[in-house]
Each structure stands twice: as structure tokens, then as C-alpha cells.
Specification:
The complex is a heterodimer of chains A (189) and B (302).
Chain A: H1 2-6, H2 10-13, H3 20-31, H4 34-51, H5 61-79, H6 114-124, H7 128-139, H8 144-151, H9 155-177, H10 181-187
Chain B: H1 4-15, H2 21-33, H3 35-53, H4 62-73, H5 78-81, H6 83-138, E1 145-146, H7 150-158, E2 166-168, H8 169-173, E3 181-190, E4 193-202, E5 205-213, E6 223-227, E7 230-237, E8 240-247, E9 250-256, H9 266-269, H10 274-280, H11 284-290, E10 295-297, H12 298-301
Antiparallel strand pairs in B: 1-3, 2-10, 3-4, 4-5, 5-9, 6-7, 7-8, 8-9
Helix pairs in contact in B: 1-3, 2-3
The chains are: A mainly alpha (189), B alpha+beta (302).
């Protein structure tokens, strides 16, 4: 990691670039808007470059990028004087449209198979707070502590939230699997 | 001993690689003996694998990647390609000097404002004190020293005030064309310190000259006339005409009820003569100009 952070090589110039797709996916989930997501990711790298000297040797750079991105997004929400959508834990939101890459005109996602699409649809129907923790754990494979750092909450909260999110996801998947997949697709049109 | 609910939690923690040490050993030991928990473990693993396999293959737009890489390789070029970063970069480029300049201006502004307000406040309180003492004199308060001699009055004050008292000479105290005469003075207080009130009298009027150290007061406001390095501030406050000025560590306030706004105002206090008319012209400013210089001090008297 040292060459990435402190060196003068070409690798240093690409500091954290390997996380860009993941960050973009996370930004899409938060913003639900590709333009905003791009701005958010770009701003994340600008801030990360400015602050990389503060990283310790044992810092988790990937989690750190996610934390920066989320904090920037929260700041944007505050500036807009609207509450972040993620606080709405109990509300159900509309299907896979909210999942990263599931914007109607998105060309950025390649769905591997039908089951994957069902899972994505179900995740998209999760409350935003659950969706976020599922994304960070299952898709990005961050540890509980790393997720806690990103979400700025205790690791115990991450554990309990993740448990509830999985339980909800199981329920939704059970419902989804009982319905034809085409229903889900048609509902988004 | 853990129950199955506890093991359910631990199973998920193990799948998430959050179990370490003894807890992990305990769970593995339990799983060897518990078919139900083994089944739950397999189901949870399968569920987690199913979810992970659904990870969207999100790929950031190529243009975004290029922007980020470009900004990393040459941060100074960020502004060329991207409006957002252009805005940020522009802000950053000028942030420090602009912020420093802004801060400097703010500090200067605050200092000047405070200084101005203090000066205004001091000036007003000085003028107010002068007017108050002028009123007191008008109510029959006797003078502490009675003399028509500027030297005598100056000497008297010099021994009683903490500042080097000087009597304005030419315009007030020693103007042989003046219709007023020096009556004397009273020791008064201003800002907790002794101050001088010099009184001049006319047949139907009187003039008070309030004198204090400029450490406690300062002349400001009103219509300003500059002459011989001094600034005279003239204004009308109610029925009183007030003229203030600073000179050599002292601040003076001249209080009178005499209207001095007209071209004939000079004749109110000075006898008409071609020379006076030529010297004083028609304005009150000219009247003020002649008053304070030169001055005579207690030292000169002694």
C-alpha cells in the first residue's frame, strides 16, 4: 500500500482507482441518479487525494473510500435541507429500479442469470438502510467494523441491521420466487 | 450453554468471518453434534452465496474513469475537462489568498469599526459632558477661578488637571476684537479624570470651553474644517453650537448658544472691522480656524 500512498510512481497517481466501480455502484444506490453518482465518485477521489497523507499504514483504504463517499453524500443531503433517504427503514421502495445499475436507461449492468435478477429485484425493494448494509456486506464484503466506520455507527448496530435486512430479503425472495419473473420486469415499465 | 438462537447468530457471524478464537471453536464443536445447526449453516451459506452471486457488475462510465485518472496524473488539469472540478479547483486555487485577504479585511474592518465606534462614543460623551457643564454654568454655578487673564486661568488649571493644560489663545483668549471676555474656569470631571471648563461671557450670552486629555476624548463628526494641521468639527446639537478639535494631546469642545450659521455670525462674537471681515471672511469655519492657534500653556505663563 505504501507505494500507492506515498510514492511518485504511476501507481500512486491511480490511488484507489481499483475501487471506482464499487464506489460508483454505491453512489448509484445512494443517489439513484447516474449524473449525481458520477459527481459523487469524482468528488470522493478529489477528497481522497487531498487526505491520503492522513491514512495510517494499517488503514483500510477501500472502507475509507466508501466512508468518504458516504460522508460527501450526507453533506450534500444536508445542504439540500432534506433528510437522507436512508433513514426510512420501514418504508418499502420500488423494486430493482433502486438498485445500482437498474436505472431504466442504464447500460452499465450485466445481469448474469434469472435468479440474480430476482435477488436484485428483492434487494431493490428493501428499505434503503437495509439495502445499504446488504450492499456493503454481501457485494463489497466489508467487515462489520468497516461497515460501522462507513455508516458511523457501532458494529453491533451493523450486525443487528444486517440480520434484519437478511430476514427481510429472505421474505421478499420467497414472495418473488412465487411470482413469474416477467411480473417484476413489467412492473418497472 | 448457548441455545439454538445463539448458534443461529453465531452461524451468520462465522459466515461473515466475524467469529474468532474460542467462539469459533465452540461453534464448530457444536456443529459436529447438531444436525439442525449444520443444516442452518448450509442454508445460510447458500443464501449468502446466492446474494453475492447477484452482485451487479456495475462499471463506472469510461469518461468518469478518464476524468479521475486525468485529475490524479495532473491535478492542475482538472479544471480543463470538468466543470465540477473546474469550479472546485478554481475555488481552491484562490482560496488561501482570497481567504487571507478576506480575513485581513474583516479584521481591519472590525478594528476600524470598533475604533470608530469607540471614537464616536468618546466624542459623544465628551460633547455631552461639555454641554452638561455648560448648562450647569448657566444655572448659576460659581467659577472655581475667576479671572480675565488667560495666563492666570491656565496656571490655575495646570496645577489641578493631570494633562498639560493649554488655553487656546488667538481666537478665544487673546482676541482683542472679541466681544466676549474670559470669566474664569471650573474644575470638572470627565472619564473619572479632572477636566477643565473655561468660561467666556458676553453681554447676553456665554461660551464654554471644555478641555480634556485626548486619551479620554477625541473630536469627530460634524462638519469638518481643516486648518494648519488641525481638524475642527462643527455641529449643532439642540440649541447649542458645538465645535470640537484635538491639538497636542488635548481635546477641546466649544459650547455656545450663538447661531453661527450665517455670514453675519462672526459679528456675534467679534467686533466688525475691515481686517476682521477680510480675515474671517463670512463663514463660521474661518471663525474656528482663528481660535486655537497659537496656544499658551501654563509653562509659558510660568
Amino acid at each position: 500500500m505504501m507505494f500507492q500512498r506515498f510514492g511518485r510512481s504511476s501507481e500512486q497517481k491511480a490511488f484507489g482507482i481499483e475501487y471506482m466501480n464499487a464506489l460508483y455502484g454505491y453512489a448509484l444506490m445512494l443517489t439513484r441518479n447516474s449524473v449525481e453518482a458520477e459527481d459523487l465518485v469524482q468528488e470522493t477521489y478529489v477528497r481522497a487525494l487531498e487526505a491520503q497523507h492522513r491514512l495510517r499504514d494499517d488503514s483500510n483504504i477501500r472502507g475509507w473510500f466508501f466512508t468518504i463517499l458516504r460522508n460527501l453524500w450526507l453533506n450534500q443531503m444536508r445542504k439540500r435541507k432534506s433528510r437522507p433517504q436512508l433513514v426510512d427503514v420501514d418504508g418499502e421502495e420500488g423494486g430493482a429500479d433502486l438498485l445500482p445499475g437498474h436505472e431504466r436507461n442504464s447500460q452499465e449492468i450485466l445481469i448474469g442469470n434469472e435468479d440474480a435478477e430476482q435477488v436484485q429485484i428483492a434487494i431493490g425493494r428493501l428499505p434503503a438502510e437495509f439495502r445499504e448494509v446488504i450492499l456493503l456486506r454481501e457485494f463489497e464484503e466489508l467487515s462489520y467494523q468497516e461497515i460501522a466506520n462507513v455508516l458511523n455507527c457501532p458494529a453491533g448496530t451493523v450486525m443487528s441491521r444486517l440480520g434484519r435486512a437478511r430476514a427481510k430479503l429472505r421474505t421478499l425472495l420467497a414472495e418473488t420466487s412465487s411470482q413469474p419473473l416477467s411480473y417484476g420486469k413489467a412492473s418497472r415499465r | 450453554m448457548n441455545n439454538h438462537d445463539d448458534y443461529s447468530v453465531m452461524i451468520q457471524l462465522m459466515i461473515d468471518d466475524e467469529l474468532t478464537g474460542q467462539e469459533r471453536e465452540d461453534l464448530i464443536s457444536h456443529l459436529n453434534d447438531c444436525a439442525s445447526c449444520q443444516e442452518e449453516l448450509e442454508e445460510a451459506k447458500a443464501f449468502s452465496a446466492r446474494v453475492r452471486s447477484a452482485r451487479p457488475q456495475v462499471e463506472a462510465p469510461a469518461a468518469l474513469r478518464e476524468k479521475i485518472l486525468s485529475s490524479m496524473s495532473n491535478p492542475t488539469n482538472q479544471s480543463i475537462s470538468d466543470p465540477l472540478v473546474q469550479k472546485r479547483s478554481a475555488v481552491r486555487a484562490y482560496w488561501r489568498p482570497v481567504a487571507a485577504a478576506a480575513m485581513f479585511l474583516v479584521v481591519i474592518g472590525v478594528v476600524l469599526s470598533i475604533s470608530y465606534l469607540r471614537r464616536e462614543s468618546r466624542a459623544m460623551s465628551f460633547v455631552e459632558a461639555a454641554i452638561a457643564e455648560h448648562r450647569i454654568s448657566g444655572n448659576g454655578r460659581s467659577l472655581d477661578v475667576e479671572s480675565s487673564s488667560p495666563e492666570v486661568v491656565a496656571a490655575w488649571f495646570a496645577q489641578r488637571v493631570s494633562f498639560p493644560f493649554r488655553m487656546p489663545n488667538a481666537g478665544i483668549a487673546a482676541d482683542d476684537r472679541a466681544k466676549y471676555t474670559l470669566a474664569g474656569g471650573r474644575l470638572v470631571k470627565f472619564g473619572g479624570e479632572p477636566a477643565a471648563l473655561v468660561e467666556f461671557r458676553m453681554p447676553n450670552n456665554r461660551i464654554s470651553l471644555f478641555v480634556s486629555s485626548d486619551k479620554l476624548a477625541s473630536a469627530t463628526g460634524g462638519k469638518v474644517t481643516r486648518s494648519d494641521g488641525l481638524s475642527f468639527h462643527a455641529e449643532d446639537l439642540g440649541e447649542f453650537h458645538v465645535a470640537t478639535w484635538d491639538n497636542k494631546g488635548l481635546t477641546y469642545a466649544l459650547i455656545s448658544s450663538i447661531a453661527m450659521a450665517s455670514s453675519r455670525s462672526c459679528s456675534s462674537c467679534h467686533r466688525d472691522s475691515p481686517a476682521v471681515t477680510a480675515a474671517m471672511k463670512s463663514s463660521h469655519d474661518t471663525f474656528l480656524r482663528a481660535q486655537p492657534l497659537p496656544e499658551i500653556s501654563a509653562n509659558q505663563v510660568n
